[in-house]
Amino acid sequence: MSRSYxxxxxGATGAVGKELLELLASRNFPIADLKLxxxxxxxxxxxxxxxxxxxxxxxxxxxxxxxDLVLASAGGSTSKAWAATAVKKGxxxxxxSSAFRMSxxxxxxxxxxxPDAVTQHQGIIANPNCTTILMALAVWPLHxxxxxxxxxxxxxxxxSGAGAKAMAEVKVQAEEILSxxxxxxxxxxxPLAFNLFPHNSPLNDLGYCExxxxxxxxxxxxxxxxxxxxxxxxxxxxxxxxxxEAINLEFDHPFAPEKxxxxxxxxxxxxxxxxWQANHFxxxxxxxxxxxxxxxxxxxxxxxxxxxxxxxxxxxxxKGAALNAIQIAELLVEKxxxxxxxxxxxx
Length: 347
Ligand code: A2P
Fold this sequence. Notes:
Helix content is 29%, strand content 26%. It is an alpha/beta fold. Helix 1 packs across helix 8 and helix 3 packs parallel to helix 5. The strands form 2 sheets. Strands 1, 2, 3, 4, 5, 6, 7 and 15 form an 8-stranded mixed beta sheet that branches. The chain folds into 2 domains: 3-99 and 322-342, Rossmann fold (3-Layer(aba) Sandwich); 131-316, Dihydrodipicolinate Reductase, domain 2 (2-Layer Sandwich). It has helices at 15-26, 76-88, 130-145, 164-178, 210-223, 257-265, 284-287, 318-334, and strands at residues 3-10, 31-38, 46-49, 52-58, 69-72, 92-95, 124-126, 148-157, 197-198, 229-236, 242-251, 270-272, 293-300, 307-315, 341-342. The chain binds adenosine-2'-5'-diphosphate (A2P). Adenosine-2'-5'-diphosphate binds at residues 11-15, 17, 38-39, 41-42, 59, 74-75, 78, 163-165.
């Protein structure tokens, strides 16, 4: 029997929140009731969903009552403050922040990679970091055929990873620079328009930033393989909403590029984009607004007989965040793990 669900989006006014709304509608997620939650700054705003204006409420104990599912994308501190309350009141929380990703009792899920992990949840399921999701989609299908020993990644990350305000800031900076003014930076530590800088998350004693360590630790958790060696350099670039990654993989034995191409051309969530004659490969502009990540430039690493190089672009807001969360919600429905109410069938 089909069921429908009482859903809340926590962070509904943000970049990912808006995408969650679009995806709930376009994928026909069975919704009995939808609550839009944000900070008190946005309370009273109205957002249109499927022709109906819904009032944004400030998150509170009361606002989290009578829910089956909370899709949280309001930052780590908000998730830490409210996820447990939502769970206590009976909801399952799919959390887009990094607050719970490495907690042993919290499944960290990319549906194309480890869908069965959702069954282990104790109320919270974590959506991985965006660069990690994109990399996992391309590497997992190859890892299934021949285990990857080592991954070296360099990322080219768009402004969207820092939210709607960061995207707006880059546009303003571009206008300021083009009109001969000094660019102003508030969300980012430096101007990003016409510039780039190493990811500004906190650094550890080894010189790696938090974003780089997320790629290391989260990939190992999602793959269920603590033995994979991973190193990453994460860089913020003046692109609005899709991330790019240059990835070098090392295997035990040579991995023929043609074989990798054939595997990735059939991998779920992946689209091969390679036109060697035209020198045409994935670009963030082409990946923006797309569900699939784009992979190309698959080639033998000339510096290592067992190395393989590839390049990918993926929409950070979509598969890197909102789409992955909705796919997790769909998995919960498919596996009968969401409470919900039966839909009465009209005759
Ligand atoms: P608000 O618009 O009221 O600040 P983004 O990642 O695009 O910056 O969006 C962040 C989202 O998280 C927004 O919807 C924002 O709401 C919400 N948010 C930020 N801080 C809080 C908070 N303390 N409580 C609830 N929601 C919050």
